Every structure is written in structure tokens, then in C-alpha cells.
Amino acid sequence: MDISDLISPAAVIANLKAGSKKQALQDLATRAAQLPGIAERATDRDVFEVLLERERLGTTGVGAGIAIPHGKLARLDGLYGLFAKLHQPIDFEAIDEQPVDLVFVLLAPESAGADHLKALARVSRLLRDRATCEKLRGCDSADALYAILTENATPRAA
Hints:
Blueprint: E1 12-16, H1 21-32, H2 44-57, E2 61-63, E3 66-67, E4 70-73, E5 80-90, E6 100-109, H3 114-128, H4 130-137, H5 142-150
Parallel strand pairs: 1-5, 3-6, 4-6
Antiparallel strand pairs: 2-3, 5-6
Helix pairs in contact: 1-2
């Protein structure tokens, strides 16, 4: 599974302005609910509630300035991702107590099972790479962020 299977260029946000974890999750839920495939099946409130519910179980701030909020929505037909580089790092209650500036939201259908876990693992591997994160932090355009996120995608046969 490649990151390009999870996100499209429209699902990448450069310089998202948010003053708190809750505001970031609300803004990301609003953006996610506008994406093709999600817009027809879930509202921004649906997305926000599933992300907030997951955060109540424990932070998705995994450390090193990275958060991977995720959740399952019954009506989705596949896995969807949304990436945001925050304008300013925010407190995300991360496990290392460091502020977060890179956020990758992952949404899956309730029936996803192992596919959801594989996608989480793929996103985690990508964002654990320090060189990739440095490149992401050095970009200010959504197109450049998308290119970095998907640069190691497996070429598709024509």
C-alpha cells in the first residue's frame, strides 16, 4: 500500500492555522468531509466525533512533532487520508510532550480490519523517516508536500 492510495493532492494542506488540538481536529474534519468519497458518506461532525473519540482513548500524537489521528466511519467505502502541515506547532498531548506540526488523518470503514492497521503502519513508517519530515517541514506548498509524501510510490503499470 502506497501513500498515494490514501491521499490525493486535494487532501494535502499547507500551513493550516490552528491554535489548539481541538481546533486542528475540527478544521481537519471539515476538510476531510469535503473530499470525494467522504463528502457523500459523512459530515464534518461525523468525522470530528470519530477523531475526538479516538483521542479520548489516548493521544495520537506519536512524538517528534507528528500526530496520526484516525478512526472508522460506518459509511465509508475505502481508506482515506488527509495530511496537514501546521502553520505553528501546537500542543497535541503527544507522548514525548513535544508540539505537533505534521498531522496525517486516516479514516477507514468499520469493516476495514487489517487494511486499517496496514495503512496506519505505512503512514507511521513514512513519518518516522527524519529526512522526509525535514523535507515536509521545509515546504510551503500543498503540491510540494504531496510530491514528498508520494515520492516513493510504486510506479503503476500502464
